Amino acid sequence: MNRYIQHGSVSTLQHCKYVAEVSCWLNRRLHIGANPHALLVGALLHDFYLYDWHTDENHEHPLHGFRHPEIARQNARRYFHVEKQTQDVIRCHMWPLTLTQVPVSRAAILVCIADKTCSLYETLFLRRRKECTHA
């Protein structure tokens, strides 16, 4: 996950760590009462899809935004044997883009919100600065 860029200049691994931090902070600060294990593990594995979605040279990953939650869920189940609630957190994190995958648990709602917040911040503010060259 550290080999792939997610948003801006942030790796997929770092993005997942940010989402975990924000999710847990919201849960604690707002006294939401989400399942802490499902929240943390779901946040850390929500983008566990293991490919670079920016390069679609072979057209192997079309519609990444719609498909990657299920790929990440399957990988998390295969490699870490995560429980059903954690799988639901991963599967629902792209709502409302994935219209039928509505987050219903507190953990899934928090990860969904944290993912959108972190993605926006990373895209807008954590981009590599290009050298300015004057002619």
Any descriptors?
single chain, 135 residues, mainly alpha, two-stranded antiparallel ribbon, 55% helix, globular, disordered C terminus
Distance between the termini: 39 Å
The overall pLDDT average reads 87
Most strands sheet: 2 strands, antiparallel
Number of strands: 2
Order of helices and strands: EEHHHHH
Major sheet strand order: 1-2
Give the overall shape, derived from the CA principal axes: globular
Strand residue percentage:
under 5%
Can you put this structure into words, describing what you see?
This protein has a two-stranded antiparallel ribbon with strand order 1-2. 55% of the residues lie in helices and 4% in strands. Helix 1 (12-29) crosses helix 5, helix 2 runs parallel beside helix 5 (106-125) and helix 3 runs antiparallel to helix 4 (84-92). The chain has helices at residues 12-29, 36-45, 64-80, 84-92, 106-125, and strands spanning 5-7, 10-11. With 135 residues, it is mainly alpha-helical.
Brief description of this entry?
55% of the residues lie in helices and 4% in strands.
Layout of strands and helices, then pairs:
Layout lengths: L4 E3 L2 E2 H18 L6 H10 L18 H17 L3 H9 L13 H20 L10
